[in-house]
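Review form for a predicted model. The reviewer records the input and the model, then writes brief findings.
Reviewer: anonymous (R2)
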Amino acid sequence: MQKLISYPISVIYYLCFGLTLVIFHPIQWICFNLFGYQAHKKSVDYLNFFLVKCTNLVGTTYKFENRESIPRNAPIIFVSNHQSMYDIVAMIWFLRRFHCKFVSKKELGKGIPSVSYNLTHGGSVLIDRKDPKQAIPAIKGLSEYIEKNKRSAVIFPEGTRSKTGVPKPFAQSGLKILCKYAPSAYVVPISINNSWKMVKFGFFPVGLGNRLTFAIHTPLKVSEFDFEELIEKAESAVVKGIKI
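Model under review:
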């Protein structure tokens, strides 16, 4: 029944979502090319504010737990499970003070209004998952960037989205590079719940009435752990916070 009801609502939702992307694409271009990073950052923040509001049309709500525990004035490596594109929309808006930059697949770097522009100009990195050697210098550059500017990187070590919410084993390579070249950073594990329900029917229609939660766990200072212990603690915290 929910799927049937969702069809007409999803049409309205995707019209609003798509229109928001189209409107903010030239706004981003103007902000970036005429006014620089800070203006572009603001345009991306408000792009994602409006995208969040679009999801409210299908009954989606958001809760971020323990945001106050995230260290300030330090590089941050957010390590999270990944369930849908709505993870990214929410993190950009609700964690906007931390200047989130993403490790994303290269396919997202072109063809998507607003999204592709932000990924290619906003400080995130695009990697070819078929070419691990290409990913190493790209992620190294991101880690050096957050170390220098005290901003944040977001990495989903599962490598791909979970379609049922069940977590997948973490890959270590990307996170290891981030930690190596951002030695003063904190790893902040996050458990995301219910985002997968937004796309449980596929792209269309959208799942209705979902409460997305983002549980932020105890930060782990990179310099205080060897890498094996660090990733074990981060993965354990993320997995324990996932509710199936």
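Findings: The first strand starts at residue 61 and ends at 65.
Further findings: The mean pLDDT is 95.
Recommendation: see findings above.
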